[in-house]
Amino acid sequence: MTTFASGTGTLTRDALTVLQPGFTGTTAPDWLLRRLGEGLASVGLFGRNIASPAQLAALTAQLRSERDDVLVAIDEEGGDVTRLEVRTGSSFPGNHALGAVDDVELTRDVAAELGRRLAACGVNFNWAPSADVNSNPRNPVIGVRSFGADPALVARHTAAYVSGLQSVGVAACTKHFPGHGDTAVDSHHALPRIDADASVLTGRELAPFRAAIAAGTRAVMSAHILVPALDPDRPATLSRRILTDLLRGELGYDGLIVTDGMEMQAISATYGIERGSVLAVAAGADAICVGGGLADDETVRRLRDALVDAVRTGELPEERLADAAARVRRLARWTAEAGAADGGARDGRRTATGGPTDALVGLRAARRALTVTGADDFTPLTEAPYVAALTPVANIAVGDETPWGVAAELSRLLPGTETGSFAGPDAGHDALAAAGARRIVAVVRDEHRHPWMATALDTLLAARPDTVVVEMGVPQATPRGALHIATHGAARVCGRAAAETLTGT
Questions:
Q1: pLDDT tens string 407-454
Q2: Which residues are catalytic?
């Protein structure tokens, strides 16, 4: 059992317990290990912390040598948002691809295999799945992270994902409550607002969260969004009406409530992370996620002291902080017990239910997710093409470290394939010049959201009607090109499935 450092009082331990901080590097720094000894119960991992499965397993073992029941959290959605495979691209398609297939058993199997790989590396808490209904096709931050625009579809796949992930002892964290799909602003940059009335929210945004709760999700993550029909004054993360009255009261949820990253501009630019953290816990949040940007001991100290001071001044009831800390410890016990019961998942061979691993389930799902238009008149490529990647700016959740597209997979199948990245008003002309006489494969991501991208495709298709188009975002624009492939995501396996179709392999 973990032994806490002497001299750490109950109030200070509780304040540390509700924090989920990050750090830099691929080994745990001394300050983090010291905080674990003082009461910190959770650590968040990002792509910067991961070099390989073996290194990650060593890192989580290092954390557990200091605290055996530590919650090791990660933002591993699969698809576009991957931390395990941040430098290669994911072996699993994301939610939108799974929603396109609409096979709940497949979704459960994908989530279980992803959870198996996390558990084998010592990760027991996943900030996934996204239960957002992507009702606004111009949404800049959700998109292919959502199962789709139909609330019933999103609900059944959210429940399946939760069940699959938790079947191997990894706690699911369903996000972003009460739903981030109908937004046109990225909360990493500013505070989004949803102006739908309460009846629409109940039938659309809340349906997947009800399904997740029924499936037993161990955690729910709040969204930094303003929803006036629910609370006209405060964003969901800081709203007692939304976290306590709605989520706990009306929906009957009794698990852990986690905030989205507190350093995101929707909170930090308006309230500051210290004030925001106090308000979040007072509103009903149990764990404060921080560390995507602010990843140091000073941040942990500032948030700990802010919570302690708020209790001492009467702004934050001590019993509320104690309840939040107790919920964190309860989840830590569940993951420890689930891990102990599932002796095989930790070595990556078998699940607690005895099912075998399925290393290719992600590729099979990606293949099934393809929507192909124009195949009847298309002759598979036999000569190395030129891949013109029309590249938008990546949102922060996805990041720009993770490769995407089809060029790598086409190079494997057709050696000599060349590629270039293009953006802006001259993208089409620049791509034509770079391609020369080669057959062009134009790879796009959310053409409907980027007018310059649509113009570039107009230019390419006018000059070269045999251009093939691969859409790796949400396929809202009309399919065009000699062949159009919608992959419903930009994961590595989505690129492989598209490359197979292009070459007829």
A1: 999 999 999 999 999 999 999 999 999 999 999 999 999 999 999 999
A2: 188, 260
Backbone angles phi, psi at 360, to 5 degrees: -100, 5
In whole angstroms, what is the distance from residue 102 CA to residue 96 CA?
10
What one-letter code names the amino acid at 304? Answer: R
The rounded distance, in Å, linking the Cα atoms of 382 and 380 is: 6
Cα(189)–Cα(209) distance, rounded to whole angstroms? 25
CA distances from 432 to 66, 437, 452, 482 (A): 57, 9, 15, 16
- d(CA 342, CA 350) in angstroms, rounded, equals 8
Q: How far apart are CA 45 and CA 220, in angstroms?
A: 18
pLDDT of 92-123, one tens digit each? 999 999 999 999 999 999 999 999 999 999 99
Task: Identify the CA nearest to 221 among candidates 292, 142, 285.
Answer: 285
Please say whether the dihedral angle defined by the alpha carbons of residues 171, 173, 174 and 177, taken in this order, is positive or negative. positive
By CB neighbour count within 10 A (0-12 exposed, 13-18 middle, 19+ buried), where does 420 fall? middle
Vertex 135, ends 373 and 365: CA angle to 5°? Answer: 45
CA proximity to 122, closest of 51, 217, 219, 54: 54
**C-alpha to C-alpha distance for 184 and 192, rounded to whole angstroms:** 7
Half-sphere exposure (CA, 13 Å, Cβ side) for 75? 29
